[in-house]
Amino acid sequence: QVQLVQSGGGLVQAGGSLRVSCAASGRTFEIYSMAWFRQTPGKEREFVSFISWSDYSTFYADSVNGRFTISGDKARNEVYLQMTSLKPEDTAVYYCAAGRALVTYASAYDYWGQGTQVTVSS
Fold it and tell me: What are the C-alpha distances in Å from 3 to residues 31, 59, 109, 122?
């Protein structure tokens, strides 16, 4: 099992920045990729970004590309999402996830953090 514990997030005005973090523990050797998803009420979980734990390659959803940056520290088993130029439509609960593939669909990820609220006011 892998446990993911998130921190960060909160309330910010449009145009501002926030960072969310995720720390993994347990069977971390199983992790090949880590990702961020977000979800708003009544909608499916939406892919935001992933990072490869082997070469730190990254990929972003079009909606956040150029504004969000995913990074990771494999030695610390931590992944971060730096969010800049935030928009009200970025408001959501953000989840980190760990898995064994570099994919954009939530069902492929085995482990999930508890979720962190990010609210962007207009």
Answer: 11, 23, 13, 34
Residue 107 corresponds to which amino acid?
Answer: S
Cα 113 to its chain centre, rounded Å, is 9
Beta carbons of 14 and 20 less than 8 angstroms apart? no
- pLDDT for 80-92, tens place per residue? 999 999 999 999 9
**β-bridge mates for residue 2, sequence order:** 26
Report the C-alpha gap between 75 and 66 in whole angstroms. 26
pLDDT score for 122: 93
Q: Give the pLDDT score at 88.
A: 98
Token pair in block for residue 30: 């199983």
List the structure tokens of 102: 């570099």
Measure the CA angle with vertex 90, ends 88 and 95; round to 5°. 145
Phi, psi of 107 (to 5 degrees): -65, -15
User: What is the 8-class DSSP label of residue 119?
Assistant: E
